[in-house]
Amino acid sequence: MSVTNTYSMRRPIVLITFILIGGIAIGSCTEIPLYFTIGIGFIAWMCCLTTFAVRKFNKYVFPCLGLFFIVTSIAYYDSRTALLPANHLEHVLSTHKSLHRIAGTIINPPILWDENILNKHVHLMKSERIPKRSGYKVPFTIRVEAIEAASGWKEISGIMKVNLYPSKEEIIEGGHNVSVLKKLKYGQRLVLFGYAFLPKSPSNPCEFDYKSYLQRQMPSVRGFMTITSTENIKVEERDCGNGIYRFIYAVYNRLNNAIYTHTFSNSAPLISSMLLGNRADLSGEVIDNFMKTGIIHFIAVSGFNVGIVVLTVAVPLRFLGFNQTLATMIILGTVIFYAFLTGLNPPVLRASIMATVFFGSFLVHRQWDITSGIFTAIFVILVRNPTDLFNIGFQLSVLATVGIVYGSVRIEEALFKRVLVVEKLQVKAERGRLFFLKKYLRKSFCISLAAWLATLPVTAYYFHLFTPFVAVINILVFPLFWIIIICGIVLLTLGTVCLPLASVSAWLASNTNLVLEFLVSNLVSLPCSYFYVCGPSPTEMAVYYLLAILLLYRKYVPISCVQIILFCLLSAHVLILPGLRKFSSRTLTITCLDVGHGCAIFIQFPNGKNILYDAGSWQNYDVGRYIIAPFLWSQHVKKIDLVILSHEHEDHVNGLSSLIERFQIKSVFSSRHSFASRKGQKILSSLKRDRICAASLSDGEVLKGFEPATIKIFNPLPFASAVTEINDNSCVLKIEYLGYSVLFCADIKEQGIGLLLSKASEIKSDIIQVPHHGSSIRDLEMFICVVQPKYAFINSNHDSVAVETLNILKKHGVRVLQTHLEGAITLSIDERGITSSAFLPKVLK
Hints:
Blueprint: H1 3-10, H2 12-29, H3 34-53, H4 61-81, E1 98-108, H5 115-126, E2 138-149, E3 152-155, E4 159-164, H6 168-173, H7 176-182, E5 188-197, H8 210-215, E6 223-227, E7 233-239, H9 243-262, H10 268-276, H11 284-292, H12 303-319, H13 324-341, H14 346-363, H15 370-384, H16 392-415, H17 417-425, H18 435-463, E8 465-466, H19 470-493, H20 499-525, E9 531-532, H21 538-552, H22 561-583, E10 588-592, E11 598-604, E12 610-617, H23 623-634, E13 639-645, H24 650-653, H25 656-662, E14 664-671, H26 672-676, H27 678-689, E15 693-697, E16 702-703, E17 710-715, E18 732-737, E19 740-744, H28 750-757, E20 767-769, H29 780-787, E21 791-794, H30 803-811, E22 815-818, H31 819-822, E23 825-830, E24 833-838
Parallel strand pairs: 4-6, 12-13, 13-14, 14-15, 19-20, 20-21, 21-22
Antiparallel strand pairs: 1-2, 1-5, 2-3, 2-4, 5-6, 5-7, 8-9, 10-11, 10-23, 11-12, 16-17, 17-18, 18-19, 23-24
Helix pairs in contact: 1-2, 2-4, 2-15, 3-4, 9-10, 11-20, 12-13, 12-14, 12-19, 13-14, 14-15, 16-18, 18-19, 19-20, 21-22, 23-25, 28-29
GO cellular component, one term: plasma membrane
InterPro entries: ComA-like_MBL, ComEC_N, Competence_ComEC/Rec2, Competence_DNA_uptake, DUF4131, Metallo-B-lactamas, RibonucZ/Hydroxyglut_hydro
Protein name: DNA internalization-related competence protein
């Protein structure tokens, strides 16, 4: 029997788990009808029975079983994700916000503060120490039961996330409004009135897919509702739900309130995140600092927390002399309760299952096998929720665990081989006082390094971050984290019965937390502490992990160093070749990203250089960080040669600061009028601080360095003029390449168009950016007649595009592309002419 078959027989859970993973991956990548999958599964099962019954077909048993399990996995994934009832809310609502009255039951309640904490929060509000839009969001999840229609209430189904935004006055006044908030508990039935809608799919390349993220939750969230006042919430007397979950949510609330009551107000959010996984009140700056130092796992409840909980319970039980079987059962109960308390998130669930298998094997007198424990945990998690396979936390948790278990010992043997040999030869009397400290530091370093190497490609792929010193930072931060967790556990357990003990543990946890935040913020400011990277492709990640496996198991794999080197060279050739082809392209590519009402246009030139024309939006999130940067990384762009800011309005510039942090920007150009404004002066000071070249543009200038394409500036005028409107002073530029031309108009209106019409012979172009987001402008038709474009693109939202503008473009036979309908728009110019494409699956006419 082969080594593989022997291994599979010894650990069948490993093979079964890999088959399940393969089936889920195939199911996510294909759209095979469920009835077809079930039919194939039935045929495979019949083949299995045949191979069992007929002896001469016995050799086909394992292939048939493998096919059956894979097909079953695909069918299971499809049935859990694709099957929706006819009355599901996805068939009732749309992506456009509309007012609805909906009835449902709370299945994931908000975190409710007790009266003392709420009074403290109200006091901060009255003293204006809390920003205008901070702390007013109350999120919870409901199971939808009915929706009010014109004919009456109609039964529907599905899970909806509700965001309540009570005003500052409502919270300060209290009374009825606060009493309503207190009733938002698990199992409570509500009637809600607000804006209901479905989440949108991403409309730009590599933009975070929040819709899929919500659908992959457990339970799957398919809709949103926004409520602006507690007056729009009617609490019904009927209360339903599972008693166990009601108890768990009540305990969670009480523990969270205990943290906020006893710890410092500025330390409570981070301590609550570490202990209970509550990141609702964490500031974006704190999360970013932990992410940039590579220790984000410390503020997300993970398997490490489970290990600390086990030790915290096990040590006192052993000290008190508990029976070993009874102590094991208490530990198991504590682990299971903690897993439910933290919401059964994949990392905690994985560690809890491993702990359950470990202690359970002791109870049934079976030998513990760590490989079987890991794969049992993975199998149970994926059976519970197949889409957890695509959960970032699950992937990082599994990879880190595998790296620590199978890689840390080999790394220690490779880096400290001589030290380990000396230690084996030493007797206890020769080891000295610092022996255990050195051993702790060495093993901590190897464990941290193993976890970092195991998660490096995935971290770079999702977060585009490279943190070279994370192994050392983990060692520095770990003792502080340990103190906070231990003090927090003492606070939440013994602190409820002993107030002095609660005060001491809370004081120590709070001050340790302040030291931790201070240390992390200073580590982030150190040079080369982190780098933003494009991130590897899936192929590059596969090559990385395959090479890691070959290096770790060289003793068991019949492969020489020469073969490994040849494999690396071949992989490098395969990975680099597509980039060389792209570099040698003779295409000029223009991509207009969908940023809502705003502008972000990326232009890639045949000579390898690029220009970003504007970087802003009126959206309530950072488009530089969440839209433009992911797109640039997907194009393997590390350096932006030139940023042109058409004018100083926020919807054209507010994403620049994030791009300056993430990319090497050589130059930023704008009009003289823009740099003279107050906003422009702030931009100039930030550019000077980062040593980025800045210059002004004006009519008649020609930009060099982008040949064979030519770039000419047509607006604004180089001298002071009667043009006082900021929009009309926008930088207008024309790009010509291979006899085709593109005219970028930014936000010019009547006066700007009038100035361009005076140069009628020069502004004729094949492609035009419709001025001022497609709004109604006088003389627009005359402008279109002069330019004579074949293509026109509009970067805006639904509310800004005027019907009159669309009619003018249609009248003149112009092919119109709109970002709010098609998503990101790409226009390419090469020897074949102009081609257009859109990110969203919409047929362009």
